[in-house]
Amino acid sequence: MRPLRSLTNLLLLAGIALATSAIGAAPHDGHAAVSDDRQAVSLPAPMRTHMLANMRDHLEAMGEIQAALADEDFTAAADIAESRLGMSSMEEHGASRMARFMPEGMREIGGRMHRSASKFARISRDAEVTGDLRPPLEALAGVNRQCVACHAGYRAVVAE
């Protein structure tokens, strides 16, 4: 394990961890429930369960990637990203079956998330040679932006 090269790198990593941990958290001020104006996406119950399990795995993968980056294990971070979030993960997650239930905008965001994860994996592998943590952190933030965009715009509900 190589030590982090600077306080800046540590702060960048902490910022990503904080942003990722807040995904899906609704603002709460102790008063009445906040209205949810996200677009409802109706799914059969088993499909909704499957989608939510995929998203929990995505979030877990983001945490594992962050831990690997903290250890400056860029290859491990790349492998996790590609296998669990990247383009090569789509078949295992049943993306083709899920896509027909998603509105076009949601499909587009999902595609961008998978592509940005594969891009992160390439950039992280390059960092194994350069030792520069900044490019992988910037690329991982791009993956996170797609997750946030989707969660901000859509919510999965059981079809009636």
Tell me what the structure shows:
- The protein contains 6 helices and 2 strands.
- Helix 1 packs parallel to helix 6 (about 135-155) and helix 3 runs antiparallel to helix 5.
- Helices cover about 65% and strands about 5% of the residues.
- With about 160 residues, it is mostly helical.
- The protein is elongated, with a radius of gyration of 17 Å.
- Strands 1-2 form a two-stranded parallel ribbon.
How is the secondary structure organized here?
Elements lengths: L6 H15 L17 E5 L1 H26 L3 H11 L10 H5 L4 H27 L3 H20 E5 L2
Parallel strand pairs: 1-2
Short structural summary:
This protein is mainly alpha-helical. The chain has helices spanning 7-21, 45-70, 74-84, 95-99, 104-130, 134-153; strands spanning 39-43, 154-158. It has six helices and two strands; from the N terminus they run αβαααααβ.
